[in-house]
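Thread: "does anyone have the structure for this chain?"

Original post by V.I.:
We have the sequence but no experimental structure in hand. Need at least a predicted one for the grant figures.
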Amino acid sequence: MQKFDVAPEHVVQDEAGLRALFPPTHDLAAKKCLSALDRHAQDFIRRSPFLCLGTQDMDGRADVSPRGDPAGFVQILDERTLAIPDRPGNNRLDSLANIIANPTVGLLFLVPGYDETLRVNGQASLVTEPALLERMSVQERLPRLAIVVQVQEVFLHCAKAFRRSHLWDPEHLQDRREMPSLAKIILDQTTGAPEDTEEMQRIDEDLEVEYRKSMY
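Reply from O.Q.:
Generated one for you, tokens below.
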């Protein structure tokens, strides 16, 4: 694939140039940003089984991590404080290390079937308080820590992105078999996947077993 280059004259260089490309925002869009979780935001969070967590390190390198559990897994500690359990993963700890370096985070909450999303921005810390972790136990297993977020901004985001993408529309679901399995993709990208179909199938089955064992 040929390298793509953009001519400098077509790169937006500053905020003034950016805003010149768009009409002014609606007054309601500017006013909808709250500094605390009102009853509607809290209700949305209690219904949400999935969020995306955006973080950055001190050098500005960004990361977005998915977080999911049964609906209501994010604890609302008060109108300005949330707690997210950290479940077992691959132990890269990208998001957690970023939070230590730079506590500013962005959250995007999704609810299956809802075209709207909820955006929350704030300052995060990593907390190991036993009483808090106990509230987040699943199958008698406690998370190692919780990501506690002090809310600074919260607002609902409109449905346009989900309407354009048809994300929840069953007619637009794609067949997962059209791409290789996760295990094969990672092996292709690293050490090389086995040519033997049966061996690859065994690896895929082992991954499913590992999922069941290490979910919590």
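V.I.: this helps a lot. The chain has a mean pLDDT of 95.
O.Q.: and The first strand starts at residue 50 and ends at 56.
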